[in-house]
Specification:
disordered N terminus, elongated, 10 helices, ligand-gated sodium channel activity, single chain, alpha+beta
Length: 386
């Protein structure tokens, strides 16, 4: 069997046809129409496929971009903005001053005369306190026990009463503003702070603090304001084992109750100091931003103007609460001002055991004020008062 070509068949039909032009043209147009229809269907098919694929890619791209946006949004990115200004006024900082001697000898020896002596009445006195005998060499009755830890038999109230008092310690406190000098109007707030001995706290006094004043604002003063302090160290009241005689000064935010030892300056006896203060303020965004800061000031106001306002003090308060809860006393190296009973013996590995736990519960403050100081000093032997 031989297959015939469609083209030849059309030609034959055209040959035998009585009207060849009409028939052949009709057949030719029908063939072209069928061919174009098939071609159009093929193009439409691939065009539909391409559109469908494009829509899929568009949807995938939209989903990817949406996910990236959500991921970026959940990270809460923030920019750091540094602004240095020189205002004409600023908040008056609070300051805390302490005498580094824990207990005054005169009132202590009146209450406990058996614990006191002098070079004339005690033959071994100068064996224990050779430097004291060399420098002072007087007959005043002073504490004769060698270890300051012996003061621990005193109650916290006795420690406050026998410590240095503000009226004798601060002989001058004035504020000079616009060439007008006035006495300090702030009532001193007694704070018992961790001393250098880690045994007995010493008396410290805060001025211009907002402690327990949650609804008050800091006093605003011109930046040219000067504060003048003159201190009487009462060195004759020192324990004879004290080799350094001086005071501790901390300049801080009015909302903050500091640890003067770790956050302050040591002031030597017989020295004039000029201290220049600059305020540095740091503001962080609260959660869910990456800073994960905590609004300590809001908590401070809720607590009636008490409690920590810095991350460091938050950790120290956490340690204090752990110590009181587990041991019934305050571990001696806790650097948070308190009136609790100090443990008689050190707690082994206390800081190591609770450092990480307390660090997890404390964050950076959302608003932090730090007073940076520049200190100039000059010796002035004539300024000594004892």
């Amino acid at each position: 069997m031989q297959l015939e070509s469609p083209i030849l068949k059309i030609q034959e039909e055209c040959t035998v046809s009585t009207s060849p032009v009409t028939r052949c043209s009709n057949r030719s147009s029908q063939s072209d129409s069928i061919f174009m229809e098939i071609k159009f269907k093929n193009i439409s098919f691939w065009r539909t496929k391409a559109r469908f694929l494009f829509r899929i890619l568009l949807a995938i791209g939209f989903m990817v971009q949406s996910w990236k946006f959500v991921e970026m949004y959940m990270q809460y990115p923030s920019a750091v903005e540094l602004e240095v200004v020189q205002p004409s006024e600023m908040d008056l900082p609070a300051f805390t001053i302490c005498n580094v001697n824990e207990i005054r000898s005169t009132p202590y020896c009146k209450l406990y005369p058996k614990n006191c002596g002098n070079p004339d009445t005690d033959a071994e006195f100068c064996l224990h306190f050779a430097e004291y005998c060399h420098l002072v060499n007087n007959t005043k009755q002073v504490n004769k026990f060698y270890d300051i830890s012996e003061y621990r038999h005193l109650s916290r109230y006795e420690q406050e009463i026998l410590g240095h008092q503000y009226e004798d310690f601060v002989t001058k406190c004035t504020i000079e503003t616009d060439d007008e000098e006035t006495n300090c109007t702030s009532d001193p707030i007694l704070v018992q702070a961790l001393s250098f001995s880690y045994e007995i706290p010493f008396n410290c006094y805060m001025l211009y603090s907002l402690y327990k004043k949650p609804y008050e604002d800091p006093q605003v003063v011109p930046v040219s304001t000067q504060i003048h302090l003159r201190l009487n160290l009462e060195v004759s009241e020192y324990h004879p084992s004290h080799l350094s005689r001086g005071a501790q000064l901390s300049i801080h935010s009015p909302y903050h109750v500091p640890s003067p030892v770790s956050e302050g300056l040591f002031l030597n006896m017989g020295t004039v100091y000029r201290i220049y203060v600059r305020l540095a303020e740091k503001n962080l965004l609260p959660p869910p931003y990456k800073s994960s800061c905590f609004d300590y000031l809001a908590q401070w106001r809720e607590n009636g103007g008490t409690g920590p306002v810095t991350e460091k003090m938050c950790k120290e308060k956490c340690k204090l609460e752990k110590s009181l809860s587990l041991y019934g006393c305050a571990e001696r190296r806790i650097d948070y001002p308190h009136n609790e009973t100090i443990c008689r013996e050190p707690i082994p590995n206390f800081a190591k055991n609770f450092r990480a736990q307390c660090a997890e519960s404390c964050s950076s403050p959302c608003k932090m004020r730090r007073y940076e100081v520049q200190v100039e000093e000059a010796n002035s032997e004539g300024s000594r008062v004892s």
